[in-house]
Automatic annotation (TrEMBL):
Keywords: Lyase, Pyridoxal phosphate. It comes from Pseudoroseomonas cervicalis ATCC 49957. The keyword Ubl conjugation does not apply. GO terms for biological process: isoleucine biosynthetic process; L-serine catabolic process; L-threonine catabolic process. Pfam families: PALP (PF00291). GO terms for molecular function: L-serine ammonia-lyase activity; pyridoxal phosphate binding; threonine deaminase activity; threonine synthase activity. This is Putative threonine synthase. The keyword Lyase applies.
C-alpha cells in the first residue's frame, strides 16, 4: 500500500503528509488516502486509552498528547422497548467525544512542528482543543461568536486558551477563522483530516467492546459529521483488514430546526436554520456534506430529523435512567426510537446509540426542561 497522503475525495488529487495543511489549494476539505487497518494482534493491550489503536494511525508522533481519552463505557440497556447499547462518550477529560479527535490531531500536528493552533467553536470542539493544547504545551486561540454566553468559554479560558469574540453569526465566526488561518495554523475540528483519525478510534473500540464483532447499527448525533465519518473510516479499515464481514449501518440524527444532511437524505426541501436545543449539531453548512451522505449510503444506513419535543423527551428520559447528557446527543436515542417504530431497525439487532456530551455542558437547558429555577 502507498504511503498515506492528503486526499481530495472529490477529485482524487493527493498531497504528501510532509507539509502540514488543513485544506486543499482551492480551499477544499481533505481526507486521507485509505489505510490498511489493523488486526487484534496490533492492539496495544496494556494501553488504557484510544492510543491502544495507535498502529491504525497514518504515522506515529514522537510523543503523544494523551489524558486517558477513549475506553468509554458501553452499557447494555433498553430504550423504546428494545435492547440497546449506549456508548458513553462523555466520559472524556473535557466532557465530550471530541477529545478523541483533539488528542490525535494535536499529537500529529505537534510532531509536524506546529506549536500554535487556531479553532472556531463556542462549545465542545473549542473545549477539546483548549484541553489538549494545554496538555501538550501548545498555544491555542479559539474564535467564538460575540453573542456567546461567557459561561460557555470558561472551560477554554481556564485552560489558557485565548478567546477572540467575532461579531455576527456562527457562520461569520467560521469565515473569520478561515481568513485568519494565514497567520495561525487552522486546526479546526471540522476541517482537519487528522481529527477524523481520532474519531475513527470509536469504530475500533466498538469492535473490541463487542468481542471483535461489528454492531448491526450505530446511531450518531450529526452536525458537521465527524463522528459519522470517523465510524465510516474506522469500520472501513476493519473491513479491509478482514476483521469484520460487513459494515454496520450508520444513522445520522439531526434536529428538524437545523438538519441539512438529514433533509437532503430524506429528499426534503432545504429550510432556514432555526434555534434548537440540540445546539451542538446546529451546523447549517457542513463542509463534508457529500462525504457524510456517501458514508450513510455505503453503509446502507440513513438519517432522521427530530422535533424539539422528541429531543427534549429523550433528554429527560435518559436523565431519569442516570444518563445525564446534552440534548445534542440525546437526539440519537430519539432517533433509535423512531427507527424502531418505522421498522428500519429491528429489535433483535445489535444497535449502539452514541452519547457524545456531558449534561454538565447544558445545565441551563436541563433546568429549563425540568422546570427548575437557577439562582
Amino acid at each position: 500500500m502507498q504511503h498515506p497522503a492528503y486526499l481530495d475525495p472529490r477529485s482524487g488529487r493527493t498531497w504528501p503528509l510532509s507539509e502540514p495543511r488543513w485544506c486543499g489549494p482551492e480551499g477544499q476539505p481533505l481526507l486521507l488516502t485509505d489505510l490498511p487497518g489493523i488486526t487484534r494482534a496490533d492492539i496495544a493491550g496494556a494501553e488504557r486509552s484510544l492510543w491502544r489503536y495507535a498502529a491504525a494511525l497514518p504515522f506515529l508522533p514522537d510523543a503523544r498528547i494523551s489524558l486517558g481519552e477513549g475506553c468509554t463505557p458501553l452499557l447494555d440497556s433498553e430504550w423504546a422497548g428494545a435492547p440497546v447499547r449506549f456508548k458513553c462518550e462523555w466520559f472524556m477529560p473535557s466532557g465530550s467525544f471530541k477529545d478523541r479527535g483533539a488528542s490525535v490531531m494535536l499529537s500529529l500536528l505537534r510532531h509536524q512542528g506546529i506549536e500554535a493552533v487556531l479553532e472556531d467553536s463556542s462549545g465542545n470542539g473549542g473545549a477539546a482543543i483548549a484541553t489538549y493544547a494545554a496538555a501538550g504545551g501548545m498555544r491555542a486561540r479559539i474564535m467564538v461568536p460575540a453573542s456567546t454566553s461567557p459561561a460557555k468559554t470558561v472551560q477554554s479560558r481556564s485552560l489558557g486558551a485565548e478567546i477572540t469574540l467575532v461579531p455576527g453569526s456562527r457562520q461569520d465566526c467560521a469565515d473569520a477563522a478561515e481568513a485568519e488561518a494565514a497567520n495561525t495554523f487552522y486546526a479546526s475540528h471540522n476541517w482537519h483530516p487528522f481529527f477524523l483519525q481520532g474519531t475513527k478510534t470509536l469504530a475500533y473500540e466498538l469492535w473490541e467492546d463487542l468481542g471483535f464483532r461489528a454492531p448491526d447499527n450505530v446511531i450518531i448525533p450529526c452536525g458537521a459529521g465527524s463522528n459519522v465519518l470517523g465510524c465510516a473510516i474506522g469500520f472501513g479499515e476493519l473491513l479491509r483488514a478482514g476483521q469484520i464481514r460487513r459494515l454496520p449501518r450508520l444513522f445520522a440524527a439531526q434536529p428538524e430546526n437545523c438538519g441539512p444532511i438529514a433533509r437532503e437524505w430524506l429528499g426534503e426541501d432545504a429550510a432556514e436554520p432555526m434555534p434548537t436545543i440540540a445546539e451542538g449539531t446546529a451546523i447549517a453548512r457542513p463542509i463534508r456534506r457529500a462525504e457524510v451522505l456517501r458514508a450513510l449510503r455505503d453503509s446502507q444506513g440513513g438519517a432522521v430529523l427530530l422535533s424539539e419535543s422528541e429531543i427534549a423527551r429523550a433528554t429527560r428520559g435518559l436523565a431519569e435512567r442516570g444518563l445525564y447528557v446534552e440534548p445534542t446527543c440525546a437526539q440519537a436515542a430519539a432517533a433509535f426510537a423512531r427507527l424502531l417504530e418505522s421498522g428500519e431497525i429491528r429489535e433483535g439487532e445489535t444497535s449502539v446509540v452514541v452519547l457524545t456530551g456531558s449534561g454538565l455542558k447544558a445545565t441551563q437547558r436541563h433546568a429549563e426542561l425540568a422546570g427548575l429555577a437557577l439562582d
